[in-house]
Design a protein that fits this description.
256 residues, homodimer, alpha/beta, 14 strands, two-stranded antiparallel ribbon
Chain lengths: 256, 256
């Protein structure tokens, strides 16, 4: 089975140009099929405030109304995605930027308003494996932003970790997929202030134990949930960590 | 020789949602290989002003400093391009949004500062015919915004009419290319207030005559220059006009 490498980068890295440059250089140097997925960071909030609109955050989750969706399109699909592609092309990588509406790569359903209406947020219903395979077979590296669509003309905001994970799962039948989810810390640590407490391999058993002990911060839980889900659905390797993961193969590997 | 249809739409249409919808519907219904190229309209100026920055216009030409380039990325490659792609996907068209850095489709050289420094503006040096052909052969309709790159990591702003024309010329060796350049008026008219003065076929001879008579408005001259250049370089048919061109085949055909 052919190898496929999927790297997800987030806001921490996008706001650190020097570190980003290092990661893009390491990414471009990896041979074989690969996919880059990126989130957005704080730029949407910053631009919203500059335009005089305070974004609504409820229970730590952003409400994506029509205005916030426009800002997400502008920053995620516009500025950030194009700059990543141009940088990678500058490093000699044959890549192209996509969102879920391009080639109908990622189709979503707008999340139904329950107690809370998240607005234009999409939950993935379909990954176009054929289109991804076509791109990869042509030696094209897709650079995916966290925008999807409902296939009826509506664009939607979707979590970038979720996109990376679900694309990894969907392509797992055809490729031996390695998925690296980047974040601020260098991996899962018992004590975030002590690098020596880094867990090199986190098993499901140990994860459940740490969960019960309340050691893990809330912020890491969705990422770990995604990671275990990916492994259960056939992704070959999942790791979490920061730029050391791609530069020095140092971080936390998640294991069943 | 296989036919290829290239449609360029501009600000007038992008600011008229009902007319845009009609044009996209007509475009999606055209069978065979096709490419959509779009400009941006007044949105960059509007957003710049909302952010408290008055864009610099010298002799009618916009100066693209780093800030204005960011706005162009956000609006042309971000909001406008993604919404066009999502709308066309909603109409069942297999398309994907691209700028010149994607697949290195359109490579440019930053215009050298002479008496005036236009900033991050690119003049086209290379069209990646192979990549365009690959996309078209796969039944993918490229939706191109007016952003290019220098292949060294720098994104650049490039006129959308020029992109449409040069892509048409570059693909003219392999395809019988029809190029439609949309604008506000329904075609070239002797008297803009009189629809009956529409010139259905504008020959080079007649054009030079009208030029000498000073009948043509300054705004149309670059478009006509592009149109004649395209025909001379092997594009099969070039027309200028508004939505009537794609809906009713009514406008001005440019002829050598």
């Amino acid at each position: 089975m052919k190898a496929l490498y999927i790297l997800k980068i987030g806001g921490e890295l996008l706001q650190d140009p020097a570190a980003l440059r290092e990661v893009l250089r390491a990414f471009a140097a990896i041979s074989g099929p690969k996919i880059l997925v990126h989130g957005g960071g704080r730029e949407v909030t910053d631009l919203s405030r500059k335009l005089g609109v305070e974004p609504q955050i409820v229970d730590g989750r952003r409400i994506t109304d029509a205005f916030q969706l426009d800002l997400a399109l502008m920053l995620y699909a516009g500025k950030i995605n194009t700059q990543l592609v141009a940088s990678l092309q500058g490093l000699g990588l044959n890549c192209a930027g996509f969102n879920g509406s391009d080639l109908n790569l990622i189709q979503c359903k707008k999340r139904e308003a329950a107690a809370l209406d998240y607005g234009f947020v999409g939950d993935i219903t379909q990954i176009n494996v054929e289109a991804f395979t076509l791109l990869l077979n042509q030696g094209i590296c897709p650079v995916l932003c966290s925008i999807t669509h409902d296939a009826n003309g509506q664009l939607l905001n979707t979590n970038a970790d979720t996109i990376a994970t679900e694309v990894a799962q969907a392509l797992g039948a055809q490729y031996a997929v390695s998925l690296d989810l980047l974040m601020g810390p260098s991996g899962i640590m018992i004590d975030l202030s002590d690098e020596h407490s880094l867990i090199e391999k986190l098993s499901l058993e140990r994860y459940e134990q740490l969960l019960a002990e309340g050691v893990l911060s809330d912020g890491i839980l969705p990422k770990l949930h995604n990671a275990f889900s990916a492994l259960k659905k056939g992704v070959k390797r999942v790791r979490v960590g920061n730029k050391s993961l791609i530069q020095h193969q140092k971080g936390t590997e998640i294991c069943l």
